[in-house]
Automatic annotation (TrEMBL):
It comes from marine sediment metagenome. InterPro entries: NT_sf (IPR043519). This is Polymerase nucleotidyl transferase domain-containing protein.
């Protein structure tokens, strides 16, 4: 099942990861977490933001994920 939008066989999955804090640049955070999603049958786009970045409410993908997405893991 899709989280948002239409699903087709070649659809990828967008994953929003929220970390408490990070000194890493956005792209470096992506690289740090990308290995966890290798080998999946579908393509995965990973977006890693800090809690502060999410709280600013200016990231359209994050706003959509928070409204329509599903929490897969939380601690």
């Amino acid at each position: 099942p899709e989280l948002h939008g239409g699903e087709i066989a070649s659809s990828d999955v967008d994953i929003l990861l929220v970390v408490k804090q990070s000194r890493e640049r956005f792209i470096d955070r992506f690289i740090e977490f990308s290995d966890f999603f290798e080998g999946l049958e579908r393509g995965v786009d990973i977006f890693v933001y800090t809690q502060k970045e999410i709280e600013r409410n200016d990231i359209p993908l994050a706003l959509t994920a928070l409204k329509r997405g599903k929490i897969l893991f939380e601690r």
